[in-house]
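Re: export button greyed out
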Amino acid sequence: MPLVDALIAKLETTARLSDKDRTLLAGLPVVMKTLKAGEDFVDQGSVLDQSAFVIEGVLTKYQVFPDGGRQTVSFHFKGEMPDLHSVLVRRMDHTISAIRDTTIGVVRHEDLRAIMSQSSSLAATLWRETLIDAAIFRQWIANNGKRGALHGTAHLLCELVTRAKAVGLLSPDGSWFLPLTQQHLADAGGISIVHINRTLRSLRQSGLAAIDQGRLRIFDWEKLVALAGFDPLYLHLRST
Amino acid sequence: MPLVDALIAKLETTARLSDKDRTLLAGLPVVMKTLKAGEDFVDQGSVLDQSAFVIEGVLTKYQVFPDGGRQTVSFHFKGEMPDLHSVLVRRMDHTISAIRDTTIGVVRHEDLRAIMSQSSSLAATLWRETLIDAAIFRQWIANNGKRGALHGTAHLLCELVTRAKAVGLLSPDGSWFLPLTQQHLADAGGISIVHINRTLRSLRQSGLAAIDQGRLRIFDWEKLVALAGFDPLYLHLRST
DNA sequence: CGAAACGTTGAGCTAGTTCAATCCTGGTGG
DNA sequence: CCACCAGGATTGAACTAGCTCAACGTTTCG
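Workaround output, generated via the alternate export path:
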């Protein structure tokens, strides 16, 4: 299976691609690269001339503060491009690293620009991806702000499961080998690892969802959605 | 002064516009509209066929939760387009309203698409604007997450002053008639109005900044920046 | 002047933190 | 096969940040 298929499949969860656009994407020169768990591959402050998409694994984007604190601002799964924005905004305000061993496909900005200039609908599709990322950021502002730990964590889980499902990462029984530790969830929510642990316990004890041995199981999707106030509209998935 | 000048001036704070792009923008059909303080002009869930930019006044973007809670996700000043993304992502996941009496310029998506198809550099400039908005969202995730009330509020003030200065909203003495009440700041930070009040008091008592009678005065920019951990890089202003 | 909106403060409560200890679980060397 | 180790998960206890309720002060404006 060609490397770009992960990217194409992801784009098709939110947009309709023309045959021409699919062909242009398929012709994109891609260099495959493997990252070790915990490896940074884009540094805060650096300038890029290439972007990457996830082929297999998980990436995270985070900021580091002067005092050493860390705020995670996104997670990226199969097919997603965490640094697509670097095509137009070259200096990075965050670090991107691999959460576990991850395979990415690297494409040069030059080549991306070339296919976008050949198809304005493809350019629009890529722009639209970054706008959906922005909508996700808006939800995360609420997760870390008004929602508070319990509702915010529930919302995050709803979102991650919905996104993972869209690109076919869930097991047939609906569970998911969630590739995140409690530390990762804590860094995303801006809360302590102790508190994320207690928040997850609360979700488990109310029979909504549980993570055990790395596997996320949703027991009561309706109730979890209600608790989170989750409306998948902002993800703009074609299937919902 | 033509209505679009506010938009053009704002775009030029972050991008270089060609004569052609400036001409295209200047030819954009704009309908001026005035909004009363507190008036919603885009509703959560609605579908738009037009976008707006601020001519004079302030807009805010916020989400409303099932329980009636509210999370503000952005403020918009002169020249900014809070719903530019609606060109590609039509259904709104948030409400936009005027904070005080505000004049906006409304442009049809159709006309925006037309000028973008005539100039790919103009299209890129507009796309880039939405990417900078996304970078601001990332900072707000941190403001409401890891930074906490004091550091997060300091960071927000640094950002707002920097943005206001870029479009010439500061008085000659460096102060600014901040068009936000403590309630607005609280909704942005996801904290209570009582707590924002105490946070501002703390900033005032440490001699960093004070808001009195609607006027924001920065006493010690260096210290405020240090407290906030503010690095204006993410705003991508040409002047810094 | 009076009303409405905004700002300020105290007091008691709740959510979330830090520190520290303990417990799994999976992997590795002998 | 087992002992050991490292990273992650879990818990208790004491502490801090932030919330709610309620009262009161101040500014603005008709």
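Chain A touches chain B through 47 residues (CB under 8 Å). The button fix ships in the next patch.
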